[in-house]
Amino acid sequence: MSGKPRLTYLNGRGRMESIRWLLAAAGVEFEEVYLETKEQYDKLIKDGSLLFQQVPLVEIDGMKMVQTRAIMSYIAGKYNLHGKDLKERALIDMYVEGISDLMQMILMFPFSPPDAKEKNLESIKERATNRYFPVFEKVLKQHGQDFLVGNKFSWADVQLMEAILAVEEKVPAVLSGFPQLQVFKTKMSNMPTIKKFLQPGSPRKPPPDAHYVETVLKVFKK
Predict the structure, then answer these.
(1) Residue 10, domain member (yes or no)
(2) Cα separations in angstroms, 55 against 67, 71, 108, 138, 174
(3) Of 37, 92, 185, 215, which has the fewest beta carbons less than 10 angstroms from its beta carbon?
């Protein structure tokens, strides 16, 4: 077995994408195993690989980790992306929680019934522009630094960059009223590890399509 983390999930974004982002931002190469059938998923449960019978599953440092937040917290700690002290860590966790609330709406969007898609898209736009992005615009402006916490790249910056791009895919002009976030996005895009992850052929997954939705429903059907 190589020393690379091994990620088990579907061949799509879902709850694994934020983990891919964080590993890539830390400059860590990883391997992926894709679930395509319910039988593969059931076998993982039967083998005892999934503590709560859920994926994502990340095998790292001899552990089989589940639960997205726990996995990301471990990666952030291991690669020094979790702040220099308890106060910074608390801020990072707080920002990450907020971003996760917005990302949850984006995560569920592909599974919206056709007649609810327009309404759900409007909700994403409204939450991003009125609740979440104003917070980060203010944080960046108030302390006048390149990054959200201290002046050091952290897990919160990675999460925010992922969220900005995910919302922009659906609402292209969403940053028009947020000059600080526009600058932040440009700087993040030019960080070597993130720039590499944004190139074609990287492990970054495309926006979910009908095939991905179909596979999710097939693998996780009761």
Answers:
(1) yes
(2) 7, 11, 16, 35, 31
(3) 37
Assigned token pair, 10? 């579907």
Any idea what the Cα angle at residue 66 is, between residues 213 and 81, rounded to 5°? 100
192 neighbors 20 (Cβ within 8 angstroms): no
Nearest Cα to Cα of residue 91 among 139, 57, 127, 162: 139
- The parent domain of residue 120 ranges over 86-190
Domain count, the chain: 2
The amino acid at residue 129 is: T
What is the chain's pLDDT, residue by residue, as a tens digit (222 residues)? Answer: 458 999 999 999 999 999 999 999 999 999 999 999 999 999 999 998 888 989 999 999 999 999 999 999 999 999 999 999 999 999 999 999 999 999 999 999 999 888 998 999 999 999 999 999 999 999 999 988 889 998 899 999 999 999 999 999 999 999 999 999 999 999 999 999 999 999 999 999 999 999 999 999 999 986
| Any domain includes 1 | no
> What is the rounded CA–CA span in Å between residue 178 and residue 31?
36
Any residues with CB less than 8 A from the CB of 216 and at least 6 apart, and which?
A: 10, 12, 14, 111
204 and 171 in a common domain: no
